[in-house]
Specification:
This protein has helices at residues 8-14, 36-51, 58-68, 73-86, 92-105, 111-123, 129-139, 146-149; strands at 17-24, 29-35. It is mainly α and 151 residues long.
Length: 151
């Protein structure tokens, strides 16, 4: 479906997929399909994760990089540092735990991303924490699963 405010080129870019042959034999091919929007940020996310010694949730890095910092690695690093300090101040992490059911009802199940969205809602008052979390979890989606985090 192409909306009137998007042209065909934008639509194709937004919904494009990359295909990569993962393995093949005489009769079959295993092809990995990845969303172009994810591919733009995956390598940067992994680089930032390595800088943090893989101690931060990759989905949190992805959200900070893509949603909050619009692809700016230096800004992402600063925002993540700010977040790590913020969550231990003023019982912010404990206060989130009191609201956890609100996020889960909204299908926002990544607690690190949800907590980051609480910080975003404090910085940018135009949206609530749950609105930020829904945008990132449901609309934009999170690319990493538990298996990916252990690499």
């Amino acid at each position: 479906m192409i909306f009137s405010y998007r042209d065909e080129k934008t639509h194709k870019e937004q919904y494009a997929w990359n295909a990569k042959v993962e393995s093949e034999d005489e009769y079959t091919q295993m092809i990995l399909l990845t969303w172009v929007q994810y591919d733009q940020y995956i390598q940067q996310t992994m680089q930032i994760s390595a800088m943090w010694n893989h101690q931060i949730d990759a989905n949190l890095i992805y959200v900070a990089l893509r949603y909050s910092c619009k692809g700016n690695i230096n800004e992402t690093f600063e925002v993540l540092f700010e977040f790590e300090q913020w969550k231990f101040r003023n019982d912010n992490e404990q206060n989130y735990k009191k609201r956890i059911d609100e996020f889960l009802k909204g299908r926002c199940c990544n607690h690190n991303v949800n907590l980051f969205c609480v910080l975003l809602s404090e910085k940018y008052k135009m949206q609530t924490a749950i609105q930020h979390a829904k945008i990132n979890t449901i609309y934009n989606c999170l690319p990493f699963v538990v298996k990916n985090k252990k690499q």
